[in-house]
Amino acid sequence: MIDKHWESAEAAVSDIEDGASLAVGGFGLSGNPIALIEALLAQGTTDLSIVSNNCGVDDWGLGVLLGARRIRKMTSSYVGENKEFERQFLSGELELELTPQGTLAEKLRAGGSGIAAFFTQTGVGTQVAEGGLPRRYNVDGTIAVASPAKDVRTFEVDGEPREFVLEEAITTDFALVHAARGDRHGNLVFNKAARNFNPLAAMAGRVCIAQVEQLVEPGELDPDGIHLPGVFVHRVVEVGSDIPKRIERRTVAVEGA
Q1: How many angstroms separate the CA atoms of 139 and 93, rounded?
Q2: By its UniProt entry, which PROSITE patterns does this protein fall under (predicted)?
Q3: CA distances from 240 to 71, 88, 90, 181 (A)
C-alpha cells in the first residue's frame, strides 16, 4: 500500500524551489488550490513559471503570488479579472504565453499522457500559428519577446485539405490541484465546476500535490466515481470542507425588476 497523505500544505510544497514550473488547476476562482498557493507564498518561492487557465484575481488564487512578484512567466488562456496581471504584462514585468483555452487543455492532457505534440485547427491563419504574438514587452511598450512561428501541415479531412498547426505538449515540475475528496492512494473526486483544469494540470505535473476537502481511506471511493486515478497524484493534503471559496464576480437580480 502507498500512503500519499502529507500532514500539511507547508510540508507538501517545501521542496518546490525557485525557478520551478507549475501546472495549477482552477478556472476563474473555481477549484483554486488556495491552501497550497498560500503555503508556497509563505515559504518565499520565486521566479516561478506557471501554467494555468488564468491567474486568479488581484487578492486571491494565483493573484497572491503575482502580487508578491513571485511569478516570472504565465502560460494562460486569458487575463480575466486580474488588473495586476494586465499591468505586469504590459509593463514588461511578466512574460505571458497566451494559448487558446482548448489547446491549453489538450497540451496539459497530452503531456500527462506521454504525447509529445499534436495537430489542431485552432489558431490556423492567426498569430498563434504564424508567430509574432507579444510574450514580453519592453518598458517603452515595444515587443521584447514574440512567439515563434509554428509548423503548419495540410491533412485531408472528409475529402478536403485542411491546415493544422502543431502544438507541443506541456509537462511541469509540479502540479497543484484542488479536489472535493481523495483517498490515501491519491484517487481524486472533483465537485462540479471544480472539475475544470484540475485533472489536466494534475496529469502534467511530474510531482502532483492535491489538496482535498475530505480524506478517506482506500476503498471508500466508488471506483466508477473516481475522476482522476491515484497514479497521477503523489501527495495528498486534507484542508477541510470549510476552506474559503471565492466567487469571481457575483451577479444578483434587482428585487422587483
Answers
A1: 8
A2: COA_TRANSF_1
A3: 28, 34, 38, 10
Q: Give the ranges where 29-142 is alpha helix by DSSP (H).
A: 34-43, 63-67, 83-90, 101-113, 127-130
| Rounded distance between C-alpha atoms, residue 51 and residue 73, angstroms | 8
Residues 54, 64: Cα–Cα separation, whole Å: 13
CA distances from 30 to 27, 195, 246 (A): 5, 9, 8
pLDDT at 257 over 90: no
Q: What is the pLDDT of residues 222-238, one digit of tens each?
A: 999 999 999 999 999 99
Is the pLDDT assigned to residue 255 strictly greater than 90? no
Q: What b/e readout covers 146-178, taking b as 16+ CB neighbours within 10 angstroms?
A: ebeebeeeeeeeeeeeeebbebebbbbbbbbbb
Residue range 117-125: average pLDDT? 97
pLDDT (tens digit, 9 = 90+) per residue, 13-43?
999 999 999 999 999 899 999 999 999 999 9
DSSP characters over 113-132: HT--EEEESTTTTSHHHH--
Q: Kindly state the cell numbers that stand for 97.
A: 504565453
Q: Specify the residue for cell string 497572491.
A: 64
Domains observed in the chain: 9-116+169-238 (3.40.1080.10)
Q: Is the pLDDT of residue 184 over 80?
A: yes
d(CA 61, CA 101): 19
Cell of 77: 488562456
